[in-house]
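Question (not urgent): is this output format expected?
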Amino acid sequence: MALPILPIPPYPNVPPYPGVPLLARVSQAQSLFVRPVLLAADAVNLVRSFLPSTAADAVNLVRSFLPSTWGLYDESGAPLLIGDNVAAVDFKRDARMADYPIEKGGFSSYNKVQTPYDARATFTIGGSAAARSGFIAILDKLILGLTIVSLVTSDITYPSANVVHYDYRRTSKNGVTLLTIDVWIMEVRLTAGTAFTDAQTTDAASTPSPQAPSGASPTSAGTVQAAPLSAPQAAAVPASNVPMAPGVG
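Got this back:
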Protein backbone atom coordinates (compact mmCIF):
# COMPACT_ATOMS: atom_id res chain seq x y z
CA MET A 1 0.00 0.00 0.00
CA ALA A 2 1.41 3.38 -1.03
CA LEU A 3 2.04 5.93 1.66
CA PRO A 4 -0.27 8.96 1.54
CA ILE A 5 1.16 12.30 0.44
CA LEU A 6 0.90 14.75 3.31
CA PRO A 7 0.43 18.41 2.44
CA ILE A 8 2.99 20.95 3.66
CA PRO A 9 1.31 23.33 6.10
CA PRO A 10 1.68 27.00 5.17
CA TYR A 11 2.25 27.93 8.80
CA PRO A 12 4.25 25.79 11.22
CA ASN A 13 2.49 24.55 14.29
CA VAL A 14 5.29 25.54 16.68
CA PRO A 15 4.50 27.37 19.92
CA PRO A 16 6.37 30.66 20.49
CA TYR A 17 8.58 29.39 23.30
CA PRO A 18 11.94 30.91 24.24
CA GLY A 19 14.61 29.86 21.75
CA VAL A 20 12.19 29.35 18.86
CA PRO A 21 13.17 31.59 15.90
CA LEU A 22 10.73 34.08 14.44
CA LEU A 23 8.33 32.30 12.11
CA ALA A 24 5.41 33.41 10.03
CA ARG A 25 2.37 32.58 12.04
CA VAL A 26 -1.30 32.60 11.24
CA SER A 27 -3.43 35.20 12.91
CA GLN A 28 -6.27 34.32 15.23
CA ALA A 29 -8.83 35.13 12.55
CA GLN A 30 -7.08 33.04 9.92
CA SER A 31 -6.66 30.09 12.29
CA LEU A 32 -10.42 29.67 12.51
CA PHE A 33 -10.42 28.99 8.74
CA VAL A 34 -7.07 27.22 8.22
CA ARG A 35 -7.47 24.53 10.86
CA PRO A 36 -10.70 23.04 9.43
CA VAL A 37 -9.11 23.00 5.98
CA LEU A 38 -6.07 21.13 7.26
CA LEU A 39 -8.23 18.70 9.17
CA ALA A 40 -10.34 18.04 6.08
CA ALA A 41 -7.20 17.41 3.98
CA ASP A 42 -5.90 14.99 6.59
CA ALA A 43 -9.24 13.18 6.61
CA VAL A 44 -9.21 12.82 2.81
CA ASN A 45 -5.67 11.44 2.82
CA LEU A 46 -6.58 9.01 5.59
CA VAL A 47 -9.58 7.71 3.65
CA ARG A 48 -7.51 7.36 0.46
CA SER A 49 -4.90 5.34 2.31
CA PHE A 50 -7.56 2.76 3.28
CA LEU A 51 -9.27 2.53 -0.09
CA PRO A 52 -8.37 -0.79 -1.80
CA SER A 53 -6.95 -0.72 -5.30
CA THR A 54 -7.90 -4.31 -6.19
CA ALA A 55 -10.41 -6.91 -5.08
CA ALA A 56 -7.72 -8.74 -3.11
CA ASP A 57 -6.90 -5.54 -1.24
CA ALA A 58 -10.59 -5.12 -0.47
CA VAL A 59 -10.80 -8.62 1.01
CA ASN A 60 -7.67 -8.04 3.07
CA LEU A 61 -9.05 -4.71 4.26
CA VAL A 62 -12.29 -6.33 5.44
CA ARG A 63 -10.38 -9.13 7.16
CA SER A 64 -8.16 -6.62 8.94
CA PHE A 65 -11.19 -5.12 10.68
CA LEU A 66 -12.79 -8.49 11.48
CA PRO A 67 -11.65 -10.65 14.38
CA SER A 68 -9.54 -13.64 13.38
CA THR A 69 -11.51 -16.78 14.25
CA TRP A 70 -9.56 -19.99 13.87
CA GLY A 71 -11.41 -23.22 13.20
CA LEU A 72 -12.91 -25.55 10.62
CA TYR A 73 -15.31 -24.16 8.02
CA ASP A 74 -17.34 -25.79 5.26
CA GLU A 75 -17.21 -24.98 1.54
CA SER A 76 -19.70 -22.13 1.88
CA GLY A 77 -17.69 -20.46 4.64
CA ALA A 78 -20.01 -21.45 7.49
CA PRO A 79 -18.22 -22.40 10.72
CA LEU A 80 -18.26 -26.07 11.69
CA LEU A 81 -15.86 -26.29 14.63
CA ILE A 82 -15.07 -23.17 16.64
CA GLY A 83 -13.68 -23.91 20.07
CA ASP A 84 -12.94 -21.61 22.94
CA ASN A 85 -9.34 -21.50 21.79
CA VAL A 86 -6.96 -23.05 19.26
CA ALA A 87 -3.91 -24.08 21.24
CA ALA A 88 -1.77 -25.35 18.34
CA VAL A 89 -1.77 -25.95 14.59
CA ASP A 90 0.59 -28.39 12.90
CA PHE A 91 0.95 -28.62 9.12
CA LYS A 92 2.90 -31.07 7.00
CA ARG A 93 3.29 -31.40 3.22
CA ASP A 94 5.47 -34.07 1.62
CA ALA A 95 6.59 -34.98 -1.88
CA ARG A 96 7.78 -38.38 -3.01
CA MET A 97 10.43 -38.78 -5.67
CA ALA A 98 10.53 -42.05 -7.55
CA ASP A 99 13.81 -43.32 -9.01
CA TYR A 100 15.10 -46.18 -11.09
CA PRO A 101 18.46 -48.01 -11.10
CA ILE A 102 21.05 -47.38 -13.81
CA GLU A 103 24.48 -48.79 -14.55
CA LYS A 104 26.98 -49.50 -11.78
CA GLY A 105 24.36 -49.45 -9.06
CA GLY A 106 23.40 -45.78 -9.45
CA PHE A 107 19.93 -44.26 -9.33
CA SER A 108 18.26 -41.53 -11.33
CA SER A 109 15.16 -39.58 -10.32
CA TYR A 110 12.49 -39.23 -12.96
CA ASN A 111 9.23 -38.32 -11.23
CA LYS A 112 8.13 -36.23 -8.25
CA VAL A 113 4.63 -36.49 -6.82
CA GLN A 114 3.14 -34.30 -4.11
CA THR A 115 1.22 -36.20 -1.48
CA PRO A 116 -1.90 -34.77 0.20
CA TYR A 117 -1.10 -32.39 3.03
CA ASP A 118 -1.74 -33.31 6.64
CA ALA A 119 -2.80 -30.70 9.22
CA ARG A 120 -3.62 -30.98 12.91
CA ALA A 121 -5.41 -28.48 15.10
CA THR A 122 -5.70 -28.58 18.88
CA PHE A 123 -8.94 -27.10 20.21
CA THR A 124 -9.76 -26.36 23.81
CA ILE A 125 -13.38 -26.13 24.85
CA GLY A 126 -14.92 -25.72 28.27
CA GLY A 127 -18.15 -24.20 29.46
CA SER A 128 -21.24 -26.29 29.95
CA ALA A 129 -21.58 -30.00 29.43
CA ALA A 130 -23.98 -29.35 26.54
CA ALA A 131 -21.33 -27.29 24.70
CA ARG A 132 -18.73 -30.03 25.10
CA SER A 133 -21.15 -32.77 24.05
CA GLY A 134 -22.24 -30.76 21.01
CA PHE A 135 -18.63 -30.21 19.95
CA ILE A 136 -17.89 -33.95 20.09
CA ALA A 137 -21.16 -34.78 18.29
CA ILE A 138 -20.13 -32.53 15.38
CA LEU A 139 -16.76 -34.27 15.26
CA ASP A 140 -18.46 -37.66 15.08
CA LYS A 141 -20.50 -36.52 12.06
CA LEU A 142 -17.43 -35.08 10.32
CA ILE A 143 -15.29 -38.17 10.79
CA LEU A 144 -18.06 -40.47 9.53
CA GLY A 145 -19.04 -38.26 6.59
CA LEU A 146 -17.45 -36.84 3.44
CA THR A 147 -17.78 -33.16 4.30
CA ILE A 148 -15.11 -30.98 2.72
CA VAL A 149 -13.67 -28.59 5.32
CA SER A 150 -11.09 -25.81 5.42
CA LEU A 151 -8.76 -25.03 8.29
CA VAL A 152 -8.72 -21.25 8.72
CA THR A 153 -5.95 -19.45 10.58
CA SER A 154 -4.95 -15.82 10.76
CA ASP A 155 -2.16 -16.29 8.20
CA ILE A 156 -3.38 -18.87 5.71
CA THR A 157 -6.34 -21.09 4.91
CA TYR A 158 -5.91 -24.78 4.13
CA PRO A 159 -8.85 -25.77 1.87
CA SER A 160 -10.28 -29.03 0.50
CA ALA A 161 -9.73 -31.42 3.38
CA ASN A 162 -11.62 -34.04 5.36
CA VAL A 163 -11.52 -34.98 9.04
CA VAL A 164 -9.73 -38.33 9.45
CA HIS A 165 -9.00 -38.50 13.19
CA TYR A 166 -9.75 -36.86 16.51
CA ASP A 167 -8.96 -37.53 20.12
CA TYR A 168 -9.47 -35.61 23.33
CA ARG A 169 -8.07 -35.60 26.82
CA ARG A 170 -9.22 -34.22 30.14
CA THR A 171 -6.78 -33.80 33.01
CA SER A 172 -7.15 -32.60 36.56
CA LYS A 173 -4.26 -30.19 35.99
CA ASN A 174 -6.17 -28.17 33.39
CA GLY A 175 -9.57 -28.63 34.99
CA VAL A 176 -12.06 -31.44 34.62
CA THR A 177 -14.42 -29.25 32.60
CA LEU A 178 -11.79 -28.36 29.96
CA LEU A 179 -11.42 -30.64 26.93
CA THR A 180 -8.29 -30.58 24.79
CA ILE A 181 -9.25 -32.02 21.40
CA ASP A 182 -6.81 -32.86 18.60
CA VAL A 183 -8.39 -32.87 15.13
CA TRP A 184 -6.52 -34.29 12.13
CA ILE A 185 -7.47 -33.40 8.58
CA MET A 186 -6.09 -34.61 5.26
CA GLU A 187 -6.28 -32.99 1.84
CA VAL A 188 -8.90 -34.28 -0.59
CA ARG A 189 -8.11 -33.82 -4.26
CA LEU A 190 -11.35 -33.66 -6.19
CA THR A 191 -11.31 -35.06 -9.74
CA ALA A 192 -13.89 -34.79 -12.49
CA GLY A 193 -15.86 -37.91 -13.40
CA THR A 194 -16.57 -39.24 -16.89
CA ALA A 195 -20.17 -39.10 -18.11
CA PHE A 196 -21.52 -41.35 -20.87
CA THR A 197 -24.58 -40.68 -23.02
CA ASP A 198 -26.76 -43.20 -24.80
CA ALA A 199 -27.08 -42.66 -28.54
CA GLN A 200 -30.64 -43.98 -28.50
CA THR A 201 -31.76 -41.09 -26.30
CA THR A 202 -30.45 -38.48 -28.74
CA ASP A 203 -31.60 -39.98 -32.04
CA ALA A 204 -34.18 -42.77 -32.13
CA ALA A 205 -33.58 -43.47 -35.82
CA SER A 206 -29.82 -43.85 -35.45
CA THR A 207 -27.97 -47.03 -34.64
CA PRO A 208 -27.97 -48.09 -31.00
CA SER A 209 -25.12 -47.26 -28.66
CA PRO A 210 -22.08 -49.59 -28.69
CA GLN A 211 -22.83 -50.11 -25.01
CA ALA A 212 -25.91 -52.19 -25.97
CA PRO A 213 -24.78 -55.76 -26.87
CA SER A 214 -28.10 -56.66 -28.53
CA GLY A 215 -27.39 -54.48 -31.53
CA ALA A 216 -30.07 -52.88 -33.66
CA SER A 217 -33.66 -53.81 -33.04
CA PRO A 218 -35.31 -55.77 -35.88
CA THR A 219 -37.51 -53.86 -38.29
CA SER A 220 -40.13 -55.15 -40.71
CA ALA A 221 -40.18 -53.85 -44.28
CA GLY A 222 -43.29 -55.84 -45.30
CA THR A 223 -43.95 -59.33 -46.75
CA VAL A 224 -41.74 -60.37 -49.69
CA GLN A 225 -43.68 -62.20 -52.44
CA ALA A 226 -41.97 -64.90 -54.56
CA ALA A 227 -41.68 -64.17 -58.28
CA PRO A 228 -40.79 -66.53 -61.16
CA LEU A 229 -37.31 -66.36 -62.67
CA SER A 230 -36.79 -64.49 -65.83
CA ALA A 231 -35.28 -66.21 -68.90
CA PRO A 232 -31.73 -64.86 -68.34
CA GLN A 233 -31.90 -65.83 -64.64
CA ALA A 234 -33.14 -69.33 -65.46
CA ALA A 235 -30.35 -69.78 -68.01
CA ALA A 236 -27.73 -68.66 -65.49
CA VAL A 237 -28.86 -71.21 -62.89
CA PRO A 238 -27.37 -74.68 -63.71
CA ALA A 239 -29.73 -77.59 -63.94
CA SER A 240 -29.84 -79.85 -60.88
CA ASN A 241 -29.88 -83.65 -61.04
CA VAL A 242 -31.59 -83.86 -57.66
CA PRO A 243 -35.10 -85.27 -58.17
CA MET A 244 -37.86 -83.00 -57.14
CA ALA A 245 -39.92 -84.18 -54.22
CA PRO A 246 -43.65 -84.34 -54.68
CA GLY A 247 -45.22 -81.03 -53.98
CA VAL A 248 -42.00 -79.07 -54.65
CA GLY A 249 -41.79 -77.04 -57.80
